[in-house]
Amino acid sequence: MTNAIKENFNFMQNTSGVVASMGLESLGKSAASNLVTPAIWALNYTVSESRPTGVDLGIYAVGFLNAPASIITSIFKSIVDDDINKKVEMIRQQHDAKFRLYIQPVQNFGSSSPIIVAMSVAAKGGVAWQGKNGQWVYITDAQGIPVCDFTPNNYLQIIQPKKPLIRKPNGDYEFCSASCSR
Amino acid sequence: MKKLVLLVSAVLASCSSEINSQVTEFDRVCNAFISLSKNIELTQLSAEDRYIFLQNEIRGLTPEGNARAAWDAVGSAVAEERYSLYKNVVDSIEGGDWSCEAMKQLSHTVKVVYSEEDLQKEKSPEPTTMKNAKF
After folding, report:
1. Domain of B50?
2. How many domains does chain B have?
3. What letters, b where the CB count within 10 A reaches 16 and e where it falls short, cover A63-76?
Protein backbone atom coordinates (compact mmCIF):
# COMPACT_ATOMS: atom_id res chain seq x y z
CA MET A 1 0.00 0.00 0.00
CA THR A 2 2.72 2.47 1.03
CA ASN A 3 4.62 1.81 -2.17
CA ALA A 4 1.52 2.29 -4.25
CA ILE A 5 0.87 5.66 -2.64
CA LYS A 6 4.50 6.65 -3.13
CA GLU A 7 4.33 5.67 -6.77
CA ASN A 8 1.23 7.78 -7.26
CA PHE A 9 2.36 10.71 -5.21
CA ASN A 10 2.37 13.10 -8.16
CA PHE A 11 -1.10 12.03 -9.15
CA MET A 12 -2.34 12.69 -5.65
CA GLN A 13 -0.64 16.09 -5.69
CA ASN A 14 -2.30 16.98 -8.98
CA THR A 15 -5.63 15.88 -7.66
CA SER A 16 -5.34 18.13 -4.64
CA GLY A 17 -4.96 21.17 -6.87
CA VAL A 18 -8.00 20.23 -8.89
CA VAL A 19 -10.07 19.54 -5.78
CA ALA A 20 -9.25 22.91 -4.33
CA SER A 21 -9.90 24.93 -7.43
CA MET A 22 -12.88 23.01 -8.78
CA GLY A 23 -14.40 21.38 -5.73
CA LEU A 24 -14.54 24.06 -3.10
CA GLU A 25 -14.95 27.06 -5.35
CA SER A 26 -17.51 25.35 -7.53
CA LEU A 27 -19.66 23.60 -4.99
CA GLY A 28 -19.27 25.70 -1.90
CA LYS A 29 -21.35 24.41 0.97
CA SER A 30 -22.18 21.18 -0.80
CA ALA A 31 -18.48 20.51 -1.07
CA ALA A 32 -17.91 21.18 2.58
CA SER A 33 -20.68 18.84 3.61
CA ASN A 34 -19.60 16.10 1.23
CA LEU A 35 -16.06 16.37 0.03
CA VAL A 36 -16.27 13.00 -1.63
CA THR A 37 -18.30 14.33 -4.56
CA PRO A 38 -16.00 17.10 -5.75
CA ALA A 39 -13.01 14.92 -5.05
CA ILE A 40 -14.32 12.16 -7.26
CA TRP A 41 -15.26 14.75 -9.84
CA ALA A 42 -11.75 16.09 -9.70
CA LEU A 43 -10.39 12.60 -10.06
CA ASN A 44 -12.49 12.06 -13.12
CA TYR A 45 -11.44 15.42 -14.52
CA THR A 46 -7.86 14.42 -14.12
CA VAL A 47 -8.65 11.10 -15.79
CA SER A 48 -10.22 12.60 -18.87
CA GLU A 49 -7.28 14.89 -19.26
CA SER A 50 -4.65 12.24 -19.62
CA ARG A 51 -3.99 9.45 -17.20
CA PRO A 52 -6.58 6.73 -16.70
CA THR A 53 -3.92 4.30 -15.61
CA GLY A 54 -2.72 6.69 -12.93
CA VAL A 55 -6.25 7.03 -11.65
CA ASP A 56 -6.76 3.30 -11.38
CA LEU A 57 -3.58 2.97 -9.40
CA GLY A 58 -4.28 6.02 -7.26
CA ILE A 59 -7.77 4.93 -6.41
CA TYR A 60 -6.77 1.42 -5.54
CA ALA A 61 -3.84 2.74 -3.55
CA VAL A 62 -6.14 4.56 -1.15
CA GLY A 63 -8.61 1.70 -1.06
CA PHE A 64 -11.17 3.86 -2.79
CA LEU A 65 -13.51 1.10 -3.88
CA ASN A 66 -13.63 -0.68 -0.56
CA ALA A 67 -13.08 1.95 2.09
CA PRO A 68 -15.98 3.29 4.18
CA ALA A 69 -17.19 6.76 3.17
CA SER A 70 -15.76 8.33 6.33
CA ILE A 71 -12.27 7.18 5.41
CA ILE A 72 -12.60 8.40 1.83
CA THR A 73 -13.89 11.74 3.12
CA SER A 74 -11.04 12.17 5.55
CA ILE A 75 -8.45 11.29 2.92
CA PHE A 76 -9.79 13.85 0.47
CA LYS A 77 -10.37 16.40 3.20
CA SER A 78 -6.73 16.18 4.18
CA ILE A 79 -5.70 16.59 0.55
CA VAL A 80 -7.89 19.69 0.20
CA ASP A 81 -6.70 21.09 3.55
CA ASP A 82 -3.09 20.64 2.49
CA ASP A 83 -3.77 22.50 -0.71
CA ILE A 84 -5.54 25.36 1.10
CA ASN A 85 -2.72 25.60 3.65
CA LYS A 86 -0.17 25.75 0.87
CA LYS A 87 -2.02 28.60 -0.86
CA VAL A 88 -2.59 30.51 2.38
CA GLU A 89 1.12 30.21 3.16
CA MET A 90 1.94 31.70 -0.25
CA ILE A 91 -0.31 34.67 0.52
CA ARG A 92 1.19 35.06 4.02
CA GLN A 93 4.67 35.24 2.56
CA GLN A 94 3.64 38.31 0.57
CA HIS A 95 2.96 40.21 3.79
CA ASP A 96 4.95 41.61 6.67
CA ALA A 97 6.01 38.86 9.08
CA LYS A 98 3.97 40.31 11.95
CA PHE A 99 0.71 39.80 10.03
CA ARG A 100 1.37 36.32 8.70
CA LEU A 101 0.02 34.32 11.63
CA TYR A 102 -3.25 36.21 11.50
CA ILE A 103 -4.04 35.72 7.82
CA GLN A 104 -6.45 32.80 7.64
CA PRO A 105 -8.41 30.96 4.97
CA VAL A 106 -12.09 31.95 4.79
CA GLN A 107 -12.87 28.26 5.24
CA ASN A 108 -12.09 28.90 8.94
CA PHE A 109 -14.89 31.46 9.07
CA GLY A 110 -17.74 29.66 7.33
CA SER A 111 -18.66 26.73 5.14
CA SER A 112 -20.51 28.45 2.28
CA SER A 113 -18.88 29.13 -1.06
CA PRO A 114 -15.64 31.07 -0.32
CA ILE A 115 -16.79 34.30 -1.95
CA ILE A 116 -20.01 34.23 0.08
CA VAL A 117 -17.99 33.67 3.26
CA ALA A 118 -15.76 36.59 2.23
CA MET A 119 -18.86 38.78 2.19
CA SER A 120 -19.82 37.49 5.64
CA VAL A 121 -16.34 38.44 6.90
CA ALA A 122 -16.79 41.97 5.54
CA ALA A 123 -20.28 42.18 7.05
CA LYS A 124 -18.66 41.53 10.44
CA GLY A 125 -16.22 44.37 9.83
CA GLY A 126 -13.26 42.41 8.45
CA VAL A 127 -11.30 42.58 5.23
CA ALA A 128 -11.29 39.51 2.97
CA TRP A 129 -9.34 39.21 -0.22
CA GLN A 130 -8.64 36.66 -2.93
CA GLY A 131 -4.97 36.05 -3.46
CA LYS A 132 -3.49 35.69 -6.93
CA ASN A 133 -3.59 31.91 -6.40
CA GLY A 134 -7.39 32.00 -6.05
CA GLN A 135 -7.54 31.42 -2.29
CA TRP A 136 -9.81 33.73 -0.23
CA VAL A 137 -8.32 34.83 3.10
CA TYR A 138 -9.08 37.32 5.87
CA ILE A 139 -7.18 38.87 8.74
CA THR A 140 -7.81 39.36 12.44
CA ASP A 141 -5.54 40.71 15.16
CA ALA A 142 -3.99 38.50 17.84
CA GLN A 143 -7.27 38.53 19.78
CA GLY A 144 -9.26 37.31 16.80
CA ILE A 145 -10.89 40.71 16.20
CA PRO A 146 -11.40 41.57 12.51
CA VAL A 147 -9.25 44.44 11.23
CA CYS A 148 -11.41 46.77 9.18
CA ASP A 149 -8.74 48.79 7.37
CA PHE A 150 -6.04 46.29 6.46
CA THR A 151 -4.63 46.73 2.96
CA PRO A 152 -3.37 43.50 1.42
CA ASN A 153 -0.29 43.72 -0.76
CA ASN A 154 -1.88 42.23 -3.82
CA TYR A 155 -5.14 40.54 -4.64
CA LEU A 156 -7.55 39.55 -7.36
CA GLN A 157 -10.61 40.73 -5.46
CA ILE A 158 -11.20 42.40 -2.12
CA ILE A 159 -14.34 42.75 -0.01
CA GLN A 160 -14.16 45.21 2.86
CA PRO A 161 -16.36 47.28 5.15
CA LYS A 162 -17.22 50.73 3.83
CA LYS A 163 -15.50 53.58 5.65
CA PRO A 164 -16.66 55.22 7.80
CA LEU A 165 -18.24 52.09 9.22
CA ILE A 166 -22.01 51.90 8.86
CA ARG A 167 -23.79 49.36 11.04
CA LYS A 168 -27.06 47.95 9.70
CA PRO A 169 -30.04 47.28 11.98
CA ASN A 170 -29.15 43.56 12.05
CA GLY A 171 -25.64 44.35 13.31
CA ASP A 172 -23.86 43.79 9.99
CA TYR A 173 -21.52 46.39 8.55
CA GLU A 174 -22.11 47.79 5.07
CA PHE A 175 -19.41 46.47 2.76
CA CYS A 176 -18.11 46.96 -0.75
CA SER A 177 -15.41 45.81 -3.14
CA ALA A 178 -12.23 47.53 -4.31
CA SER A 179 -14.18 50.32 -5.98
CA CYS A 180 -15.40 51.56 -2.59
CA SER A 181 -13.37 54.45 -1.26
CA ARG A 182 -11.26 53.80 1.80
CA MET B 1 -12.47 -1.07 -14.07
CA LYS B 2 -16.11 -1.43 -15.21
CA LYS B 3 -17.19 -0.97 -11.63
CA LEU B 4 -15.11 2.19 -11.40
CA VAL B 5 -16.53 3.64 -14.62
CA LEU B 6 -20.09 3.01 -13.38
CA LEU B 7 -19.33 4.56 -10.01
CA VAL B 8 -17.67 7.64 -11.46
CA SER B 9 -20.52 8.08 -13.99
CA ALA B 10 -23.12 7.94 -11.24
CA VAL B 11 -21.22 10.47 -9.15
CA LEU B 12 -20.69 12.73 -12.15
CA ALA B 13 -24.41 12.64 -12.91
CA SER B 14 -25.15 13.72 -9.36
CA CYS B 15 -22.55 16.50 -9.55
CA SER B 16 -24.00 17.67 -12.81
CA SER B 17 -27.54 17.78 -11.46
CA GLU B 18 -26.30 19.69 -8.42
CA ILE B 19 -24.62 22.32 -10.60
CA ASN B 20 -27.72 22.53 -12.79
CA SER B 21 -29.96 23.03 -9.81
CA GLN B 22 -27.68 25.82 -8.62
CA VAL B 23 -27.95 27.49 -12.01
CA THR B 24 -31.73 27.21 -11.76
CA GLU B 25 -31.66 28.73 -8.30
CA PHE B 26 -29.56 31.70 -9.44
CA ASP B 27 -31.93 32.11 -12.35
CA ARG B 28 -34.88 32.02 -9.98
CA VAL B 29 -33.43 35.00 -8.16
CA CYS B 30 -33.00 36.67 -11.54
CA ASN B 31 -36.57 35.75 -12.51
CA ALA B 32 -37.86 37.48 -9.40
CA PHE B 33 -36.22 40.69 -10.64
CA ILE B 34 -37.63 40.11 -14.13
CA SER B 35 -41.13 39.87 -12.62
CA LEU B 36 -40.47 43.07 -10.75
CA SER B 37 -39.27 44.87 -13.87
CA LYS B 38 -42.05 43.70 -16.18
CA ASN B 39 -44.99 44.54 -14.00
CA ILE B 40 -45.82 48.24 -14.05
CA GLU B 41 -47.64 48.08 -10.75
CA LEU B 42 -44.71 46.37 -9.12
CA THR B 43 -42.25 49.00 -10.35
CA GLN B 44 -44.28 51.53 -8.40
CA LEU B 45 -43.67 49.70 -5.16
CA SER B 46 -41.60 51.33 -2.44
CA ALA B 47 -38.03 50.14 -1.94
CA GLU B 48 -39.11 48.12 1.11
CA ASP B 49 -42.06 46.54 -0.70
CA ARG B 50 -39.79 45.56 -3.58
CA TYR B 51 -37.61 43.68 -1.14
CA ILE B 52 -40.65 41.95 0.37
CA PHE B 53 -41.86 41.04 -3.12
CA LEU B 54 -38.47 39.56 -4.03
CA GLN B 55 -38.23 37.63 -0.76
CA ASN B 56 -41.64 36.20 -1.47
CA GLU B 57 -40.63 35.18 -4.98
CA ILE B 58 -37.56 33.30 -3.79
CA ARG B 59 -39.05 31.88 -0.61
CA GLY B 60 -38.74 28.35 -2.00
CA LEU B 61 -34.94 28.54 -2.14
CA THR B 62 -33.12 26.91 0.74
CA PRO B 63 -31.36 29.49 2.93
CA GLU B 64 -28.19 27.39 2.84
CA GLY B 65 -28.13 27.19 -0.96
CA ASN B 66 -25.63 29.40 -2.75
CA ALA B 67 -28.27 31.41 -4.65
CA ARG B 68 -30.21 32.40 -1.54
CA ALA B 69 -27.13 32.76 0.68
CA ALA B 70 -25.54 35.07 -1.88
CA TRP B 71 -28.67 37.22 -2.13
CA ASP B 72 -28.87 37.44 1.68
CA ALA B 73 -25.17 38.34 1.84
CA VAL B 74 -25.31 41.13 -0.76
CA GLY B 75 -28.13 42.67 1.28
CA SER B 76 -25.40 44.18 3.50
CA ALA B 77 -23.37 45.43 0.53
CA VAL B 78 -23.36 49.00 -0.75
CA ALA B 79 -26.56 49.09 -2.83
CA GLU B 80 -24.76 50.01 -6.08
CA GLU B 81 -22.51 46.96 -5.80
CA ARG B 82 -25.15 44.31 -5.08
CA TYR B 83 -25.40 43.21 -8.68
CA SER B 84 -21.66 43.03 -9.37
CA LEU B 85 -21.06 41.12 -6.13
CA TYR B 86 -23.89 38.70 -6.87
CA LYS B 87 -22.59 38.21 -10.39
CA ASN B 88 -19.13 37.49 -8.96
CA VAL B 89 -20.61 34.76 -6.79
CA VAL B 90 -22.44 33.16 -9.71
CA ASP B 91 -19.43 33.39 -12.02
CA SER B 92 -17.19 31.98 -9.33
CA ILE B 93 -19.49 29.00 -8.79
CA GLU B 94 -20.52 28.41 -12.39
CA GLY B 95 -17.22 29.43 -13.92
CA GLY B 96 -19.08 31.36 -16.62
CA ASP B 97 -20.28 34.85 -17.42
CA TRP B 98 -23.73 35.06 -15.83
CA SER B 99 -25.86 38.12 -16.31
CA CYS B 100 -29.27 39.36 -15.27
CA GLU B 101 -30.23 42.71 -16.73
CA ALA B 102 -33.28 43.12 -14.49
CA MET B 103 -31.20 42.59 -11.36
CA LYS B 104 -28.59 44.99 -12.70
CA GLN B 105 -31.25 47.66 -13.18
CA LEU B 106 -33.17 47.14 -9.96
CA SER B 107 -31.04 45.62 -7.21
CA HIS B 108 -29.87 49.01 -5.96
CA THR B 109 -33.47 50.26 -5.71
CA VAL B 110 -34.37 47.66 -3.10
CA LYS B 111 -34.22 48.35 0.63
CA VAL B 112 -33.65 45.41 2.93
CA VAL B 113 -36.40 44.87 5.47
CA TYR B 114 -35.14 43.16 8.61
CA SER B 115 -37.15 40.56 10.46
CA GLU B 116 -37.62 40.58 14.23
CA GLU B 117 -35.18 37.69 14.32
CA ASP B 118 -32.57 39.77 12.46
CA LEU B 119 -33.02 42.64 14.87
CA GLN B 120 -32.75 40.42 17.93
CA LYS B 121 -29.57 38.79 16.68
CA GLU B 122 -26.57 39.18 18.95
CA LYS B 123 -24.37 41.92 17.52
CA SER B 124 -20.82 41.00 16.59
CA PRO B 125 -18.03 42.87 18.41
CA GLU B 126 -16.75 46.01 16.74
CA PRO B 127 -13.80 45.47 14.42
CA THR B 128 -10.44 46.99 15.23
CA THR B 129 -8.22 49.21 13.09
CA MET B 130 -4.59 48.89 12.03
CA LYS B 131 -3.78 51.61 14.55
CA ASN B 132 -5.30 49.72 17.50
CA ALA B 133 -4.83 46.11 16.42
CA LYS B 134 -2.52 43.92 18.49
CA PHE B 135 -0.43 41.65 16.29
Report:
1. 19-112
2. 1
3. ebeeeeeeebeebb
